[in-house]
Amino acid sequence: MTSVVSTRALTKRYGSVAAVDGVDLDIQEGDLFALLGPNGSGKSTTFRMLLGLVYATSGEIQLLGHSMPSAASRTLPHVGSLIEGPAFYPHHSGRANLTLLDASSGNGRRTRRARVREALERVRLDAGRLPYRAYSTGMKQRLGLAAALLRPRRLLILDEPTNGLDPSGTREMRDLLLQLQRSGTTILVSSHLLTEIELICTRAAILSEGRLVAQSKVQDLLSTSQSVIVVTHDIADAINAVGSIPGVSVLEQTPDGLVLDLNGAEASEVNASLVSAGVGVREFSLKRERLEDVFLRLTGA
């Protein structure tokens, strides 16, 4: 597949502080890719470097096959973005703001009204003549995304696009992103709503303190479970049976059994120990992690 975003050893330092430290990203055409991390982990700084808004201290950036920021004038017209909240004229309506933005972008005048109307309809924003200064946070986010959609884009870079949206708006944003992906747009998104990311994203990367700690398909991240569920009434015998396996510990004990932390041990070794000790096991299964569990484990947040 074609690489749409590629970074190699991408680093941004502010004095002695490394906001982004040696990050290698690889985002393929058609991905709905999530860049995740706690506050201050370097997500927004990475987005700003990709768009040429902040210069990297060192490392390489390829965007749509071109080196950034040197190829910004050729590349950025094909990239839509929503970074750290949109900025518009406060006394103008959303429609008027988009009309001015479209005119300044050099798009054709004859179809301008239709483009603006379509962009507003896609994000389901109908605020009439209400000035931008009176918009809610969610309405501002919708207008910012509409601005990114005024022309066809090969790549969208969206920093917290669901910020300020209610549950209904969050679902609409999810459906819109999936629709855009199906139409061929590659999407790079950040969000703290990990349940939403788990539902819609194909691949994800996790940053912690500026460093990349994971990058994979979302389903692969979720399959790396570190714990097993053992359903048994022989709880004391089960604890004794696994007690000699290095690293294995009891995470949770219930009337129906145990949840064991593998901590690097093999699930097959745990199962074999239980069988050898004659423990009556009714169920033995890997505990499926949620993306939130993986995030917390890898970042220590």
In a nutshell, what does this entry contain?
The chain has 301 residues and is of the alpha/beta class. It contains 11 helices and 15 strands.
Helix vs. strand class: alpha/beta
Straight-line N-to-C gap: 34 Å
Strand count: 15
Major sheet characteristics: 6 strands, mixed
What does this structure look like?
- The protein has 301 residues and is of the alpha/beta class.
- The protein has two domains: 3-221, 3-Layer(aba) Sandwich (Rossmann fold); 227-289.
- The protein has eleven helices and 15 strands.
- The strands form three sheets. A six-stranded mixed sheet has the order 7-8-9-4-10-11, with helices on both faces. Strands 1, 2, 3, 5 and 6 form a five-stranded antiparallel sheet that branches. The chain has a four-stranded antiparallel sheet with strand order 13-14-12-15, with helices on one face.
- β5 (58-63) and β6 form a beta hairpin.
- α3 crosses α4, α4 crosses α5 and α9 crosses α10.
- It is elongated and about 80 Å long.
- The two termini are 34 Å apart.
- The relative contact order is 0.14.
- The model has no long low-confidence stretch (mean pLDDT 91).
